[in-house]
Amino acid sequence: MSAPAAQAKPVFKLIGGASLHPDQVAGHGDIMEGDGLIYKPSNGLEPAFYQSLAVHAPEGFREFTPKFYGMFKRAPYTKDTYVGMENLTHKYVHPCVLDLKIGTRQHMDSFTPEKIAVCLEKCCKSTSLSTGVRVCGMKVYRPHKDAFLSLNKDAGKLLREEHLPSVLDAFLSDGEVRLHRLAQFFCERIKALREIMATQHTYNLISTSLLLVYDADLPGESGDHQMLAACKTIDFANATLQKDDGHEIDTGYVKGLDSLLSYFEALADPNFKPIDLPLK
Predict the structure, then answer these.
(1) Which of 144, 135, 146 is nearest to 168 (CA)?
(2) Kindly report the CA angle at 132 between 58 and 112, in degrees rounded to 5?
(3) What angle do CA 128, 131, 136 make, to 5 degrees?
(4) CA dihedral 79, 57, 250, 49 (to 10 degrees)
(5) What DSSP string describes 48-102?
(6) Rounded to 10 degrees, what is the CA torsion of 13, 30, 135, 201?
(7) What is the SS3 assignment for 260?
(8) Of the candidates 18, 3, 32, 13, which has an alpha carbon nearest to the alpha carbon of residue 70?
(9) How many helices (H) and strands (E) does the chain have?
(10) Residue 223 carries which DSSP code?
């Protein structure tokens, strides 16, 4: 297993006016936004991963990653660097966001034994090991309250498998009715991603997330109304590029996508009854 190799020494651009990204629901470190981009603190293998996509991405996979705009700094001589990516919610009025950690493995072989133990414990104590899915964070708009409800990563770690369909139900609802066309859109995107991941021999997406976003003002539910929504893989600090085609399929990641698809099926059951969640 190897890291994605950077193709050249990075050229850093300077960040202009930027502020904290208001739609961040998970992750480490503060993410900034400005000029239609988000600027994420650079860590691990993420910059090299984005650079590798131009050469190594499996067919169809790049449409599931945010557009990459290079490396940035806030000032010429600072050490802190940022990955510049498209801001998926830039034009959204009421952005709803669900961040799901996908896969049953969240450690690299290069981690220290202590760090591996922490990652294994986190997987065992959450829904990651049993389902391949863990809720990292969610915020969803409720029009009748003119307010957002949220679920943070600490609450997500305490959820059990039986709660996960209810998380999707809460996310794909305006608080009164379910957004069926939006649910269909995400289900179709996850099926397409699963087809890629079930056959690709390029990447192991260790500890990556699947980000589901939509604008509550344009959920596409009636007639020819426009839908603003996206389904993207993110957080590639520990993603690895293989040197050959001999490695096994990332079955833990595929398991997570299969679990998600089963939760969408559960929502389609007319007898489905959601479980109360600790939304705030």
Answers:
(1) 135
(2) 85
(3) 45
(4) 0
(5) HHHHHHHHHPPTTGGGGSPPEEEEEESSTT-S--EEEEE-TTTT-SSEEEEEEEE
(6) 30
(7) helix
(8) 13
(9) 7, 13
(10) T
Residue 139's SS3 state is strand
User: What pLDDT tens digit does each residue of the chain (280 aa) get?
Assistant: 455 544 456 677 878 766 566 566 665 567 888 888 999 888 768 888 998 998 889 999 999 999 999 989 888 888 888 899 999 998 899 999 999 999 998 887 778 889 888 888 888 888 999 999 999 999 999 999 999 999 988 898 899 999 999 999 999 998 888 888 899 999 999 999 999 999 988 888 988 999 999 999 887 776 656 788 999 999 998 888 775 555 678 899 999 999 999 999 998 888 899 998 888 8
- Residue 66 CB neighbours (<10 A): 21
Beta bridge partners of 232: 211
Helix (H, G, I), strand (E, B) or coil at 136: strand
| Other CB atoms within 10 A of residue 81 CB | 16
Half-sphere exposure (Cβ direction) of 132: Cα atoms closer than 13 Å: 18
- Please give the single-letter amino acid code of residue 26: A
Q: Which two tokens stand for residue 42?
A: 């650079």
CA distances, 192 to each of 155, 258, 264 (Å): 29, 12, 15
Tokens of 206: 């260790």
Look up the pTM and report it: 0.88
Nearest-angstrom CA–CA distance, 232 and 152: 20
Contact 132, 144 (CB under 8 A): no
Sign of dihedral through CA atoms 57, 59, 60, 61?
negative
